[in-house]
Design a protein that fits this description.
The protein is an all-beta fold. It is built from 2 helices and 27 strands. The strands form 6 sheets. An 8-stranded antiparallel beta sheet has the order 15-19-12-9-14-7-6-27. Strands 5-24-23-26-21-20 form a 6-stranded antiparallel beta sheet, with no helix packed on it. A 4-stranded antiparallel beta sheet has the order 1-18-3-2, with no helix packed on it. The mean pLDDT is 95. Bound molecules: fe (ii) ion (FE2).
Length: 402
């Protein structure tokens, strides 16, 4: 849920005549969730937003997932997926490669240097975390300048493209959900305002500020969309390239509560305590069947007998995925994990700090780690890219020296 914004040129009353300076009638589009019964925005187009002139299949990359069997904790080295200068010819949309997924959520990774095609994910809300680099995300609502540490939330069906300068790789960790992605409900009032106890609030959210007013004809939009499920419980997703007769960013103004926005992880205020605080205090977003948390640089526990490293834990109802973005992750010392790593600690495996890290954390007053965690409530399988960048020694890293 986001709060109300109004940008650009809109009429004083909804669903009434709105004309440009020359007297031409503008076309109102409602973009809304749950039919007409939840958050929505009204956008005013210069040309008919429904006019399309062609459609052809878009062959999507492989999104099948292999079961984590036999059961193992896993370590994936995402930076190995784009060696050398491979990033220069990749874009955020067509270049992303799935590393983990289940029927609720798919996690992909890309290092990109090219501007993406116009793209709309009609199957998923997307939460794209920018690990490194910068880009401009253009949308019908306007543009968002995004850079390292930004979560970019793109509601389902938001046509957009990632504009990359190509001077450095844009490293993006892409979370695609079959549900909507929103701040945790417990951080919001009954009408959606971020509470005093929330780790971030409306002032920290950046949204497009002015319309792009693009003009153009025959604009191809790459669309991911749902198809009839094949009985697996996971909706199958298909791709199409739909040619729109006019530019999708021809909007002169919009208002409402549904729009893309960004939150930088540096604006997330961590909660600390006398003793170790569990991951839920670090939660940033949620969707059906998963949560997104982040571990940011912070002062840690100040009880005189505290152990700042996490205690060992068995998450009996979830698989836990941590993407290590920056800093020194003390609890994983000696495991080979560093920036660009992903750990998968599945249900059924008790996990915690590597040998020596638990004791070694005593007396530590501050950590400089930066990591993004996705906990899923259904088991995750490995995508082809995930299986292809695995450090197979990780599973035994707690047993070294026995
Ligand atoms: Fe954990």
């Amino acid at each position: 849920m986001t709060h109300y914004r109004a940008v650009g040129n809109i009429p004083p009353k909804r669903h009434t005549q709105h004309r440009d300076a020359g007297g031409a009638l503008l076309y109102e589009e409602l973009m809304g969730e749950q039919g007409f019964s939840a958050e929505s925005s009204l956008l005013y187009h210069r040309r008919l937003p429904a006019a399309i002139v062609a459609s052809r299949p878009w062959e999507l990359p492989d999104t099948t997932a292999t079961a984590n069997h036999p059961l193992l904790p896993r370590h994936l080295l995402l930076h190995d997926l784009f060696p050398g200068e491979e990033w220069k010819s990749a874009d955020v949309v067509t270049g992303r490669r799935m590393v983990l997924g289940n029927g609720d959520v798919r996690i992909s990774y890309v290092a990109a240097g090219e501007t993406s095609p116009y793209y709309s994910n009609a199957a998923s809300d997307e939460c794209v975390f920018v690990e490194a680099g910068s880009a401009i995300v253009e949308t019908p609502f306007g543009a968002l300048e995004v850079s390292q540490g930004d979560y970019v939330i793109l509601p389902r069906g938001t046509t957009h493209r990632w504009v990359c300068a190509g001077e450095e790789p844009l490293r993006a960790y892409c979370i695609e959900a079959n549900s909507h992605i929103a701040p945790p409900k417990r951080h919001l009032s009954s009408t959606g305002q971020h509470l005093e106890t929330a780790p971030y609030c409306e002032r920290d959210l950046r949204a497009p500020m002015q319309p792009l007013l693009c003009e153009g004809e025959d604009v191809e939009v790459y669309v991911k969309h749902r198809a009839a499920a094949a009985g697996s419980g996971a909706p199958s997703i298909l791709g199409s390239v739909v040619t729109r007769a006019s530019h999708p960013f021809d909007v002169v103004g919009w208002d409402g509560c549904l729009y893309p926005y960004a939150l930088n992880v540096a604006d997330f205020e961590p909660l600390t305590g006398r003793v170790h605080q569990p991951p839920p205090v670090h939660q940033a977003f949620e969707g059906d069947g998963f949560v997104v948390c982040n571990f940011v640089p912070r002062k840690v526990d100040y009880h005189p007998l505290s152990i700042p490293a996490p205690y060992y834990h068995s998450n009996v109802d979830s698989d836990e995925v941590i993407f290590y973005c920056a800093g020194n992750y003390g609890a994983r010392k000696g495991s080979g994990i560093g920036p660009g790593s992903v750990s998968l600690h599945p249900a059924g495996h008790t996990h915690g700090p590597q040998p020596g890290a638990y004791e070694g954390s005593i007396g530590v007053e501050r950590v400089d780690e930066l990591a993004v965690m996705v906990d899923t409530f259904r088991p995750l399988g490995l995508g082809a890219a995930g299986a292809g960048c695995e450090d197979a020694n990780y599973a035994w890293s707690w047993s070294h020296g026995r």
